[in-house]
């Protein structure tokens, strides 16, 4: 075990030595990190809080269920329903949906369970591409997309419709008018964005103000220990100035359902564009052996090795705190105030349960622990100094 | 009887010596105050007037029916329907509803009676809490709430949707946009507020103007002889400046259906947060006996005793005017011009009838009587002097 | 016959010596005024034109059918339908409705005939009173009123909803927002006013501009030889400045269905507030005989006699032109450019036919004839001189 | 053959010597111009691109199907369906409809084929006249028109509603509000104009901005080698300043289905107001023979002859390029950047296929070829010099 330290924090899961489905946080190979003690059945879950999303009046649980892993191929209908039930029972009131298949499946579960519509918040997305029939982010596409989602969900309205990607070719006026239309039709309560730059969010806000449209309330953004800049530096500014909140997701919290390949775990390539994660320590060593003839430069190999060292340090710290590295990672994300809702994924109720234990870890993340973490990560983002154009003369 | 003078004016009812349901104003124990002569069946009721609510075009009767006591446990379906029928026959055209149960019951009565929709005005409320599923006053909650009300009422629209409490966590823009949406959907004709501060009302108005939304037309506020400041000092300013009118309710006029406990009547604690009312003369005496070791200070005991004296003086004045203290209290409220609609409650048609007699008392409330009342009450509100910040230097 | 010349021009009808229903313009007693030659069946009717109503894009025939007399008690269902059919066949594309009964009846006829919805323009009204259930002109009343009209008409939309009277107690913002709502719901295409002062129309326009609502396109106003000031002096200004057009009606053109009382015809008192019309030459003579003890002063008797002389002169002029006084009156109204649509009433198809002949009279109203008419009427309205407040010093 | 050179470029088709339906671009009489090689079945068609229409987010194929010829009398239902199927298979995603009959027929085909609503863009038109029932371009007419179109199309919405002609009598505010209404009702996604002047388009835009309405995205305009000024000089300015794009049609590309009269082809007179096209070389010669007594002046005859020479030169150039004159003409139009979508008509799938070959011609239209074309056409539009009003003094 652990013969091959790897670049991805996710791959720490391999340390746990479990086969088949991931067993987040039960134990890790770098020692005997025990998972947090279970407090099954306690509702609401200790540490679970409700926060206003952005500066809107909508209050959501500080963790939401990312449903993409829930309806992945390896999970049976019964398991999926069990995950949603555990989420609701745990006090989670937000389900985030990312594609058509999940909408259909969640629609069926909502019909079966008959949960009160007031009890949960559904967020789903408008996707678009330049290649498919739905070319670009047009009013036509937005409206067609939302109507199709409503049919699949068998709901009268979606709580938050998220536009998954800004379209530089589509005028922002068209987008904000279309979103206002969706809301005025009663098809949605709010709208938000995912993977938009702060300039794009600001442009949307400006257009809303100009045309008296309803402003977006949330940006969904990747956020974890190795992807911090946007969420720590720029989104808080968005929140303060225009009330757009942060719903965070990350490969760590989204409960990847990839099968483990021996002791190497690969992140799903391209799915989240997590470029810096797609290689393992094996790869580093293999490329180092090829050096200097190999395609990797010396710097890249060095950086890879430093990264592996960081992951070992994190695992050691998690052990000291009595949790799994994944639980540490989840707690670390939640510790950051801008995160109003952190999406957790799961391929089993047990896994969701494990992740929810992270909430109890928060009080233990004292300022000294947080400092220690910063020392390990060495990536606390800082704003580039503002250089006066006058000074450049 | 009257062995224990009490702090609440309501408890004067105990003087009447009746058991079971309250028999407002028939007679009171401090003498032989006769109730006003009945003029049953006369329509419209003498003294009943129609006024524009706020500066809106909607004309409502100067007394409305507060339906919360009507559908309280002790009242049968037949009695409830009789109360509503008497209200309509008396010329009352406004029914104020405060909770889901009353909506369902009124819905049934409206179906049975088949009254023309144009003949009455329904006001109902959006409630919210931080604890229930409906966490906070969000667009989601407002819309879900109103849809549910419409279903219970079996109506196509509510005349005025009242937001029961401002939510400091919900941006006012969201609230006024949601209310405009409700009205644009045809689900409501107007909207109003209840228990909002004048600053909150003003903020709502400003947001309506900024976003071209429909402004609120009414604030529902507690108003009676011992709760005067907001309605006499600040709401008239709201009316003059932004057209928001006043619909008043008070424990006196709302026909409390509490059972009497011997000669002591307790106001329903916490229901209206009428803090200054929840103790009786017994309590005062008991605490006075404990003094100075007791929890009540000397000042509080003194204030309690003075209050009891005031109540006795009021009862004496009512006797002189030939009415019950309750009738005097209702007439006194109606005498104040800012009150465009006073909500009366009732647990029986007879009680509503008694309360309506108060309308005939108004001409008898001459300026000398009103002066005498002010002398008794000693609480005519005055604005705090405006202190220049310059003067503070 | 004609023993008693009368004060009302309407009563010229008595000259025709017909009994029962009015037979407008066939012949008059002051000579042998022949009616204009019939050109039955010619479609479109000679002289019938289509004009934009106000500065809107809606084109209506220069005469519209006022349906109030059409559905008056003496007219059978077959006759009513015949009138509407003649109107449509003659090229009239506007039906003006004034009360609930006519709406129901027209609804039935429209169902029976199956005319294309695009072929006609329906105008109907929002009435209100301070006495009935529908107290004042509120959003509630406007919406309830229009919904009821649509049901009676069995139509999906009304073309123009006319607010029959301004309500000084209802804020103009509420009115223009309600009318915009009606139009946004698709229940109406346009809105207009009836019997509003130019100040009220201007206030409505200002509010529309302030709140980005749809502006009114037409004012319905009384207009005839003896009621000229508003339509000739002030409404043209409204048209030029804010695009509000004029739809005119008058007792003369509305084909009163009152029964004749021997040779005296009384206008329906109060129906149109045509104060100066409600007395006959008989009355004048009777009051002159009582003078100076009678209730009428010398001036009033003199004025009455002068008026009767005018009517005789008009009848003589009509005879010279080869038409009836009524036809002259209709043509005279149409000759005035501000009148974009003149409402004609009828209690029979024949009567409508007679009225439509007036259109052919227009070319004969040369400037010399118009001058002669002004000489007879002596009431050409002029604006009061603008007196500078400086000059008053 | 070719005994009578003709004025219209279309009439080049006669050169091809085919009888019956036009056989665009197979061969032309002035030599052996071979049609472009077929690449049947290749999807997407080489050269077919998707462009944003105007500055909207809607992406359409650079060629659209003009359906007017598709549903002309000589084309069977099967043929029509075959044309639409070929269009879709070729990657064309825009169908432009011009009259009621085509709407009904396309509605049926869309029902039969069951194509996904997201896969195609329907544009249809609001027509109006001063003569028919639908007098002028009013809110009433626009709404009635669009509702009727939706019924005929059996669709929930049209993608782009085009107003076919500006109505100088209808205020622009009414038009833009009506179009916004259409879009707010969900009956259309976008709106555009056809045959509006740039001043009218600018006025529409200004009104949209003033009243916060949705701006038009496209102007449909005639564009071909002999009608260039508006599309080359003025519409690019509209695109740059207010984002209105250009959808072009021309007699050449619209696949006229007129029967050929021997070797003379007449353009459908009046259908597109293509004044400069309605005469043939025969006519020129006939009129030249009559000269100077004939109705044509010397200049006109000269101009006619020069035009015929130009057509011969164009045909020669097409031959050199290995395509038909029609294909050259289509490619030439597409070569001009302002054309975001060129409408092609067809009366058979084969003809559409031939026209689509033109797309492969574009790379061959080098700058030297384009220069040669300009030399032949002698009509490159230039803006009139801006003359200062000062200079005029």
Structure description:
The structure is a homotetramer of 393-residue chains. With 393 residues, chain A is α/β, with parallel strands linked by helices. Chain A has a domain at 55-255 and 332-364: TIM Barrel, CATH 3.20.20.100. Chain A has helices at residues 12-15, 77-89, 100-113, 139-153, 172-184, 198-211, 229-242, 281-290, 298-321, 325-335, 349-357, 367-377, and strands at residues 50-52, 59-61, 63-66, 94-96, 121-126, 158-163, 188-194, 218-222, 245-249, 339-344. In chain A, the strands form two sheets. In chain A, strands 3-4-5-6-7-8-9-10 form an eight-stranded parallel beta barrel, surrounded by five helices. In chain A, strands 1-2 form a two-stranded antiparallel ribbon. In chain A, helix 3 runs parallel beside helix 4 (139-153), helix 5 (172-184) crosses helix 6 and helix 8 (281-290) packs antiparallel against helix 9 (298-321). The longest helix of chain A is centred in the C-terminal third of the chain and has 24 residues, at 298-321. The first copy, chain A, starts with 11 loop residues before the first helix and ends in a 16-residue tail after the last helix. Residues 1-42 and 255-278 of chain A have low confidence and may be disordered. At the A-B interface, loops of A face helix 3 and helix 4 of B.
